[in-house]
## 1
Amino acid sequence: MTKNLWNLLNSTISIFMLLFLPSAVLAGDLYVQSIKARILSSPSLGSRIVVEANRGEVLKELEKEGNWFKVSYKESTGWVSRLLVGPKPPSGKVSVLEETEEKLEKGSRRRASAFATAAAARGLAEERARISDQLKVDYDGLEWMEKINISDEKAAMFIIKGVGK
Amino acid sequence: MNRLFKLISSILFLTFPVFYMTVSHASDDFRKRAPQVEETFTEDDDIRAEIVFGRELAARIIGKYGIYKNNDITQYVNMLGKGLSQYTNRPELEFRFAVLDTDSINAFAAPGGYIFITKGALKAIEDEAELAGVLAHEIAHVSERHIVKELDIKGKDESTVANIGRIIGGNTEFLRGVFTQMVDEAADILFEKGFKKQDEIDADRIATLIITTAGYDPSALSRYLKKISSDEKEGKTIGSTHPLFSERIEKIDTLLVDNNLAGKKYEIVKERFHENVRLR
């Protein structure tokens, strides 16, 4: 009889825990946004590197402390900076320039958002007169800057080569 | 038997407030977090708004200083800057870098990934790690959306006054004027008022994370700031929008000590910097 009552007690507490605790401790997936994210042995930049995860890989959030998440990744557990991860998978590049060019060159081949269409109409060649009251505006210089085209991969390799890693 | 029932009731009575408080705390915590979730600009329209706004601001930065059209140096700065930008949580942005044609020592960031460093700053820099530190600081202003948050730039939220989507889409002189005013306000932050002190300190902290993760000397930004703050004392022209040198240096140095990074030897990549940047 006593045993049954203890079982009842345990079941009651378990039901409470099932009902209420998940909302307090439920942790989500974190996706690596940076090209690589170091998972460190403690929430400190200089601590030992446990493992490195690549962009797009999923880390399981275990807890949060300041700017750091404690995560599990494959067989390892460690700390990752909140600045390198996000709650959604990393997205591809967003560019207003490509949509603008596509629209200007080929018409509205695909449905651009109202925003992009408006940006296209206002953004480049047609609106040069839209000059600030106070400041000079240099779109030629801007376009010179935007013509430089370096891939993420090439730039990443450049850094790795420079620091010798 | 009765005692056991009393025991059960007592435990439930005593534990319920704890559970209640836990749940209540979790809800409070969620409420605190909820606005932050709303503030994250993950929707494409918000990102487009950020880029379109940043382009306009970039055109004003170039308008003020002029662009230094040296292909080799610009390629080098882009290679380094784009590499560093991949150590942030903004893979959706195409970061772009250019050198401004002025001997004043400064660097600027416009939303959407438009980053500038002056010729004067490049002359003051002594190695690639220092350049990485300066660029990473500007990248951090973009990745943390400091101007975007300051001016509440969004692409789709109808409730915000600064609804860039509506402003850009609206084809009236009034809305064009609003847009121009907003960009001018952002230019005022860059050229006159400066970022909030906390934004500068956060950008230094994130820059240190970026360069350390990429493999560069974590103290490089602090070294650069110490150098230009002493240049300032000697009367050289330093841009007025990055004040608080002593406080920033102190915060970075504390960060390095706290993270066990002080005094360790890391890559500074001096040779490659001087091969690519020949301005003296």
## 2
Amino acid sequence: MKELLVLSGKGGTGKTSLTASFVCLAEKAIACDYDVDASNLPILLKPVDSEGHEFSAGLTANLDKDICIDCGLCRDLCRFDAISIEYEIITLSCEGCGFCSEVCPVDAISMSERPSGRWFASMSDIDGKMVPLFHAELRPGEENSGKLVAQVKSSARQKAKEEGYSLLISDGSPGIGCPVISSLVEANLVVIVAEPSVSGFHDLKRVRELLALRGVRSTLLINKWDLNPEASEAMEKWAQECDIPCAGRLPYSSELAAAVAVGEVPVSRKELHDLILPLWENIVKTLEKQNQIS
Amino acid sequence: MEIAVASGKGGTGKTLVATCLARILAEYNPILIDADVEEPNAGLVIPHRVIDTKPAFRPVPEVDMKSCTLCGKCAELCRFNALVVLPSEVMVFTELCHSCGLCAYICPENAINEVNHKIGVVEESDLLSGGQLITGRLLVGEVQSPPLIKAARATRRQDSEYRLVDCPPGTTCPAIESIRDSDFCLLVTEPSLFGAHDLELSIAATKLLDIRTGIIINRWQGDDCDVGIIAREQDIPILERIPYSLELAKSYAKGENPLTVMPELQVILENVIKSVKERVA
Amino acid sequence: MKNIAICSSEDKAEAMVDGRFGRCSYFMVWNPESSDFKSLKNTGIDAAHGAGTGAAQVLLQNNVGVVLTSRVGPKAFQVLNSAGIKIFQGQDNISVQALLGKYLDQQLQELKQPNN
């Protein structure tokens, strides 16, 4: 089984629109959305049959005011300001470290599992082709530890194993923190979607640094290249120097923006299909080449 | 007054709005804080001069093996599995540590001291337009951003009437940490299904924090799409709409001043400041 | 003689192995002297972070000298390695008992670096 992960340093580069397009272009694949913080892939892939599961991560403190003797020790020792003057636990601030519960002289504080979100196993109907889709929703204010990403990933891989899928196409989360590091586990190739701007180039370099650290191969796709042709060229030259193959460029397209605005997968429109198909073919080639090496 | 500029998803124009507000408020010498420490981009689009760079730390345990009796209590109580007691040593995994201080407090032999672990830097700059820029920059591979955000927010060379926070996208800990103490939260979104979906999550977060909130629709093309529905349902005002402009996108990508390229942006954002002031007052 | 731990999906020797070290549901621990299995619940599995180091700590407390697993991360590897616990590359889609058999027949390779 191979996993293709689509990443970008910052959001808004067109990562999700492209991931959805690749899912449609692939012969047989499972789709995953690791952006559990703001899951957008389902907006385009429109799951028809969803099965939801509760998810909890870490712990949170609960204080029993009937037992509490107002000594203030917990409040003094908590580094996260999670206990108010009135001894209310501020769940949003609580890290679940259990310091308060450990030191409370009268055992008024207990720790319990922290409901953090939900994950979903669904099927998407893409023009009659049924594609399994895995995604999740983190509750607002919860920590994105990467555990929910790991949950989505392992459920998807389990399904792939059971039903003989050989390709996973995943929409990564933005940034370079924990969730991204969890997304990278077992990924075979990363498609970095970048925009040719000062900040886009900056983000690209940071993503590349992380991938180098984790030893994951990548290929570069420049979106909206014509917004800044000089920067596009500089990015491609830089990629060449770093031994990152280029999957290609996409021009700025109001058609693409229009498609996504109404929740359509870009490749369902002929013009966009013809633009994106060659990029997808390049990515498949790079992925296959990788197979031969590994 | 502190205004947090946030968004549910990345790439909606949060940094554009935050940096333009800083330019418009130049006469008040505003403090612009780039709290998007994983991808700090504000400094890339607003001219500034770096004055000082200070490392930012968080405390992590260090075990003195001369006093340690390998009793295992620290490892047993650490909820983050950051300490492992081996037959002849204690291993500390700083990247797992949340800096809660429990291990050092409960060690029966007082063998654990907390030492500083570098997680990034806080850069202090002067904005050439006037005011200051404070940038938090997380070390690549470091996973704990809230302490760095806290450090960046606490840094200032001198106080100002206006503080602007360019927040990380999303609704998780880093975003919450950036928004929580602000007087007002500006949510920048775009008129699409993605924008509306993520906006709804952001509004849930600002309601949880009990912070007054307003919406700016960026790349507006004559239609609020589902963003309008969400705003009505959630009873959050749409303060202004920034029209879509390819020219603006092109010049912004090159790092040019958006206010020069699109003069009406000045008026739009002045109106935003006015409405925020009215709502905070 | 030290015990042999195998990452398992359930608390019995007939169960299928679980490929992940840190987030496997159980460890089936085989005692070479008595030839008996006992099961250990992997308490690290629920941790938001540090499942691997938590799991390694559990094994350290149960006189384990060898671990059979498909995938082990860098932190857990570091702990196991420092504690002198040997790690052998397991297989997927095989029962705990069968994997132990392969180890005893010396069919498994020792893992010299983390692979997750």
## 3
Amino acid sequence: MRFLDEFINYMSSVDAAKLFRMFWFFFIFEFFRFFLVEISTIIFWKFDSIFRKKGIADARLSLIKNQPLVSIIVPGRNEGKHIFKLVNSLKEQTYQNFELIVIDDGSDDDTAVICRNLEHRGMINAFYRNDVRGGKASAANLGLRFARGEYIIHFDADCSYDRDAIENILVPFFYNPKIGAVGGNVQVRNYKESLCATLQALEYYDTISIGRITTSELGIYRVISGAFGAFKREALDRLGGWDIGPGLDGDITVKIRKLGYIIHFEPTAVCQTSVPVTFDRLIKQRLRWDKSLIRFRLRKHRDVFFPNDSFKFSNFISFVENVTYNLILNVKWYFYLFDMVFNFTSQLVFIIPMNIVLYTVNNFMKFLVFSPFRDRKNEGITYFLIYIPLMVFYFGYFLRIVRTVAYVQELFFKASYKDSWNPAKSSRQAKALKL
Amino acid sequence: MSLKIVPQSIEIRNNKIEFDNLLFFIVDSNSSVKIEPLIGYDAIIIDAKDADFAKLILKKIRTHYNPEFYLKPVFLINYKESKDPILHNMNDGLIHSYDQLKDIADIAKQIFLKTTQLDYQLVATFEAQMVKKVLNYMFTRDLKTLKPIPDLNSAIGYTYPEISVNFDSTEETQVLEILEWAEKEGIIWPDFYERIYLCNQCNGGFLSYREVCPHCNSSNSSAQDLVHHFPCAYIGPLSDFRNTIDNSLTCPKCNKALRHIGVDYDKPSIIHHCNNCDKNFQDFFVKAKCISCTQDVEVQYLIPKSINIYKLTKRGRTAAGNGFLSSGKEVEDIFGAISMPVFKTLLHYEIERIKENPEQKSCIAIINTENILELYKKIGKKAEKSVLETIVNLIRENIKPTDFIAFENSSTLYLGIINSEALQAETDLANLKTLIEKLIKNNFNDFDVKINFKVKLLQPFNKSEFQLDELTKELFD
């Protein structure tokens, strides 16, 4: 109680200038980028959508009239158990002119048996199997090679899709012909399974549903999720499909951007996925994702930062924003930490709780303010409210530390080339060729 | 009159040879194809210069319903090794000249001796009669096993000459059914020899197995290796990598040359391209095209059958000489007819009745269709029963409601004719004979069924079994 009294007294004694000095990191970077920019963009987007309404309706009509063949490719390894569910859920889709191509990347379970059976029963249009594992990119490319559709949609086998998801992800192509790829809105299905999953659901709400509307609207949207992404066939053909991962989703998005296409996020094209339910699995997943920032943004696609023939300002901004807010600010956060530890040593005992309070208030505010803009909610707002105080620890500390480890591993040890997610034979070649 | 002098002063007159108290008849290509006149000869020698003709005659003899024909010793002269299993297996000996008459005469005598030991007891069903015929043949020839022989002329690819001789090559599956029946009856036991698969439409065994496109069922497809280029993750058929200028392989995505399998590329699987529907697939369907009926059948729908070597069981060995009683269930449940035990009971009651009323006369009659086995053979097992039911219906329409019918077997039936004089019953039976003959002729492509019947007045002081035996003997004697 005494500490609480002292804390309140301290807080009330802090004036605006001192508050800014103590929490400059939050005010300059986080509040500005992840609240002010996002809320203003979202408001603009909502306002703009009134004017886009007719154009979108016409685009939908055009899609329905033209009925282009769409190839849904589902690459995966040991995913057989999910395929039957996926096939059944696809029967419910409002857009039905699609071919379903499942690619088995050297599964060592019953995937081949299940999929062959579904293929024989006509529930899968084509099933291709690599007896030898080649990695997710090669599996996706195999599907692409034999796909016949004008549009390619990349699915993950363990995801499920809203019944209008395919239709909604295709409409933008007819709204704006310059759009080369559309990302779907990935939400967390198993958010009630564990605390870890609930926190990820909150994170997805923020970074995917809201964050991607913002980046898409600003023209800097950079990762089309592999769980649900649609591509113009001609764009993929020009690129020769996906390159070696991990991080192939972000990589293909950048490559399509470089071709001059617009990348669009479609919040109404909803996909639900299962996220890792334990923190150790989450760490593995995020280490893989975060390493790709160094490997692809700073190494493979570093040409985006330099003026050249293919230089595009939006690509440059997209990369700068990405690198700044993920890599530089991550480093800067430690700088801030040192600043606080050395310059405010005696007040640290109050600053840390205050920091937590500040972030938590911000998180509550963001959640409540952005909720009306969310197209679809898994659960009423109240379910998540009690978990919001934990987000500061999850997002501010846990994920930041994981990200730091990933960056160090990749920057100094090129750890992504050792990731078992990719077969060693491919990683060896990629490393040798600096891909 | 032709006369040939052969060594050792053996005389052939009009194709007949008398030797060692046996009368041989030589059938050559100038002979008639009718075999009925041969009944009076002890043995037949077929001139096999013309193998087709020889087979025709041999088959006619062995398929005949009368044991005096089908058990007749038949020898071949001028026989050149033939792949035909009937010609090869269903003769009793080969001679190259008439010098060898002594040898075949001994064989013929042995067959006669065995034939006299046979019991021609009637059996119930078509299968039973066919098996009995085969058992008789095996007994007289001292055969212990029925061996399958690969045969291109058989619809299923195998033939059991001793049974198959009774069927057309297209009806070979009936042979398998009969063998299965005999196995169930405990007459023979199987020793696995081979498994075959038959067309589910026509039971044909000549199938062309093909890998077909799962989309259009065409077998016009070509296969290629899939190539995975590690550095860029491109994967596609080998043709994507082929260079039009030289033989090198170049990645179509990154234009790098493929150098070393396992290092910068591999071949993770194979892809098939259908030249008919232009689709690609990895898992082709295997279909079997029946050469006989051209039906394309998925292999899981083919009918599997075991081809066995069959050996006589103890029961079979006994039955071969002494005959056997089959379960005869097939003729028991024909509507309008009663079983033989019930028939005998009713006959017993009738005898008791006329014993007390001597002024009343009743008769028993036997009707035998001599060659109906040939018809059953043609129409199959299912139709056999409907033929029997039709015959019973016809008889029932022309007899009194108090009269009763029972099948001894599928070619022989008994009638109990109540309150009828023998003469009247005789007239009624003659009418029935005509009606049945017409019925069969009209319904089965002019098939001439040969019907024999016998009527007897029921004797009040003889047992029913005795009177039935007497009646049967009189008909067959």
## 4
Amino acid sequence: MQWTLNYEETWLHRMNPAFKLVFFLVLFLGLLFIHNPNVITYVTFIPLVLVAFYTGHKRKLLLILMIPFLLLFFSSASSMIFFGQGTTTWWKWGLIHITEESFYRGLHIGFRALNFALLGLIFALTTRPVLLFYSLTQQLHVPPRFAYSFMAAVRILPMMVEEFQQLKTALLVRGIKKEKGIKRVTQTIKLYAVPLLSQSIRRAHRIAVAMESKQFHNGERTYYYNTRLSKFDLFFVMYVIFGVGVTMWLGLEFPTYAITDVRK
Amino acid sequence: MNRLKLSDILITIVIALVFGIIYKLWGPVYNIVKPFGLHIGDVVYGMWFIAGTVAMLILRKPGVAILAETAAASGEFLVGSEYGLSVLLYGIVQGLGTELVFMLFGYKRYTAFVAAVSGVAAAAGSLIMDVAYGYILDLALWNLILLISARVLGGLLIAGIFAYFLVEALEKTGVTSLVRPASDEDFKALDK
């Protein structure tokens, strides 16, 4: 999210946001076709290098952002490792049955999740949402109704945060006590969720009416920001192709695990 | 059929973004309950289907559920979800599940029952994605059944029943009358 953080602009920021999104989705689908754990282990270095050196953010921030990734890796891999099917038993204890096959399949899923997480982090850290919506309308011809609704909606969020603070202090002044247990949930919904949601629905409605009364329409329009493809997009594609080539070769020539297809 | 107007889209996306932020905060919750591997924690997964049902119950127009769920997923993605891009595709498929159920009822019925079924359909959508992404069919059978039942139960309870009651509470504020298309009863009331 690029609203407040300080960062240096890198070539990843200069890529076309819509192209970046589409290309990342292609990479996502491509990752689903990698079934060799050796390959995916090496492939992880492709996004890792970009995160480590080219997002333009401080190392400390990056490290903090990557803490949940470890949890994610473990939680994605664990069910499959403990309960997956396989024939070569390593360890059995009660319901837990770890086999060679299930272990590597779990590891594979963990690396897959890690790759998606890293790609997502690169995108989030190097894309300005406003430019993304501009470029979605210009390059992918998303109807402006959707793109501008998105941008207006993003603007409503900080107002909601402010309203939330107001509500909190107002309830404090009135001496509302917190309920316990399940009643706490219904209380929170009644006191916070309902007023916050209904107010933002009203606000969104007013904004839409205002936009239309000022002649917002879905047809031809000019743009404050013009977004186009550039050499940075080409550079990124070449980096990925080169990276995939090298890591595939490494995975096939220098395998680190005994299994080459986790589906068996 | 009613086409989505600018105000419908804007309201849907605002609702969706609110849930998008909840989706992001929900990630660590799920990751903490999940590693025990028995999938009981998958009951909380239902929270990730809720945007579609809530928006559909409020606006009651075709296309709202899929738009809301996709927008919520994009919101989650843009604030840096640890699931990265996968949330976008999961969001689309889950929203499609919710949408299909309301479509089957001809966009005419918005009861707790239909909401619950739509939650289950969204759960089915997420499971389809999991087959491709997490090889869940290779889990031991009893474990797979646990996963499916926990996921479906979560969809039913959180994205179905809970969403229904949330919208019912919102209705009391009168805000839904702003956005809903005129219903048959409204026209009948005019004839009196």
